[in-house]
Predict the structure of VOC family protein.
Amino acid sequence: MSRAIDPLYVRYQVTNLVRLEGFLRDFGMERAGGSEQRLYMRGTGTAPYVYEAVRGSENRFLGAGLRVSCMQDLEALAKLKGSSPIEATTGAPGGGWRVRMRMPDGFEIDAVHFVENANGSAPADGLPFNTAASKPRVNTAVRVRREASPVRRLGHFVLHVTDHDASVAWLRERFGLLPSDFLAAPGQPDNIVGSFLRVDRGDEQVDHHCMLVLRTDSPGVHHCSFEVENLDAVMAAHDYLLARGYTLDCGVGRHLLGSQIFDYWRDPFGFRIEHYTDGDIVDRSHQPSVFAGTADETTQWGAKPPKDFFE
C-alpha cells in the first residue's frame, strides 16, 4: 500500500487570477510562480507551493496533492484504475513526479514525489503566553500588528462526496490514510456521514486530520485550511481581512473535533478558506470517536457555524 506523508496543495479554477492573487497575498501567501494562465502560491514552510489555480471560464475546485515517500509508491499507484502514468511536474515549482488520479466524484488527487523542498523560513518564536498558573513572559510586552499573517502550510481540506464509504475506501487504498474521528447524522451514531482522515506515520506524531470526507448530495469542496503561527496571528489576520473588506464566513472559534482555533473566510469567488492554529496532534495510539450532533455543536467556544454549515 502507498502512503501519503503530507498534504501539499489544493487546486482551483477561477475566472480572474489577478484578483485571486491579491486575496491570497492578503490571506498570507506569496507568489511562487505562474503565468497568465496559471498561478502558484506558497507559504513559509518547505512546500514549493500550497495553492495552485488555473484560469478558466467558471470557478470550480479541481483537486489536491499529497506527498508520498518513494517512487515505488508512484509506480504502484500508476497501475490502479483511473490513474495517469508517472509524469514530470513540468512548470510547477519544486519539480518532481506525480501520478494524477480521479476520485469517484471527479476530484483530481495527485500523488507527488521528489518535490524539491523550498527554503522555508524557520517558524517564528511566538512570545510565551502568561497563564494564571505560569507566567514565563517577564519584562516583555505583547505588541501585535493588524496585518496579513503568513500561512505556514496546507493543513487539510474537506470534500463533499456522494458516496462516503466508497470515497474513504478509495483514499485509504491509495494513501493509507487512517480515521481519527467520525461524524454521524444527528442522534444516529450508527449512520456515519463523515470521516476525519490522517496520514499514517506510525509512532510519529501527526495532525489530527489532513482531510475530512463528508457525504452530501452535491459533491465539491467545503473548504481548504492553512496553519498560522498562533492565536495572535489568527486574530491579527481576522482584523486585517475585515479592514480589507473581505467576507467573513465563520470565526473566530474553537472546534470540538481536532480542537483547532478557526477563522473561515470567503475568497472573491465564494470558496471557503480557513486560518487555523493549535490543532490536535496524534499518533498510532489514537482511538477514533463518533460525534452524532449538529454542525453548530462542533464549536466549543466562539462563533458557532449555522446548522447547515457542512451541507
